[in-house]
Amino acid sequence: MRFGLIYHHQLPRPWEADSEERLFTEALEQIELADRLGLDYAWATEHHFFEEYSHSSAPEVFLAAAAARTENIRLAHGIVHLPPAVNHPVRVAERLAVLDLISGGRLDFGSGQGSSQLEVGAFGIELQDKYTQWHEALEVIVRMMTETPFTGHRGTWVDLPPRNIVPKPKQKPHPPLWRACTRRESIQDAAREGMGALAFSFVNPEEAREWVEAYYDTLASEECRPVGRAVNANVAMVLPFMCHEDEEVALDRGLEAAHFFSYSLMHYYVTGEHRPGVTDIWADFQAAKESLGFTREPVAPNDEDVQSQVAQAMMDQVGMLRRGIGTPEQIRDVIRRYEAVGVDQIIFSVQIGKNKHEHICESLELFAREVMPEFVEGREQKEAEKAERLVVPVKEALGRVERKAEDVSDFFIAPELSAAGYADEDDD
Predict the structure, then answer these.
(1) pLDDT at residue 115, as a whole number
(2) 142 and 26: one domain?
């Protein structure tokens, strides 16, 4: 099991003049601390126009700042929006390479399509087109990172002449590829394309077992045809997080933030009618949280206040939001259950709602001291055994893809195993 932190840069209203500056400063301090404590990943998402829910509009800048302040923690895009109107493929390839170089080969590349019409519509993208735009751009970006020179592309969404895209990443053949996933079907799609599955839905360990089994079964099947020049065989799950010796204190410090995370997400994707610069999501949350079941002791929502389908979606989330909030013993038990079903990484959402910086730091220190050691001990051997099991399926998957021979010379299983393929420039 590996551990990461993910940053949406949530910032509920009301805002002060220095709120955003303080938000980013504190996030970088948290990542510095996580690096010293031995956590494995720092993830940053990308969103545009999502007031309060996510002020993370330039993750490449944020991750570069984190690279300058850390030594070991991997720096991961979770995710970059790839429709060309949002991020042109050339610029993505260039930024990835520079970040990989300045971080000493610590970059992971997660990508996605963009999300709601509020977001993609501002860039002139129709919802029905965003998948094909993402997929075409991803294929082109992989080629830019691996071809010398890039031999050009004429497609539906991207037309590019032959050019040599410089610089090239430090990691060979390219940084590990991840895909944003919210359903079992997209988990299987990630496996079909040889990418790590970055599961953003909050799912319990029992459901996670089905997702993990579907992922690895698909990865080992003839359906797997990697989009990259390497296979990143990993499944990561996301949880809200707050750890304290006293369960009640942990709930006091972290539960409302987890509830706000879910509420604000539903606001942008399901329930909300957003007026840019006007809508106060935090105030709306405070007014509606009890009727929606966002309480210390979950209760069924009032059917008179909310449509049944929306109510059910809310309640499905509420029951899972506590899993990463509690005592070291409680969190240890939850992680054991995810580990037992084959989840490779737990990613904690820490800077959400109105969680306080000092509480986040205290939680990370307690977690690293009381919980992490159990999952770190013997980890390298288990990962090596996993890599060995997947050698044949990975080679077979890469062999199904028609490419020039020199483009299929390396593969990797897990970002943690440099011997499995995250080759530095000096490696053969």
Answers:
(1) 79
(2) yes
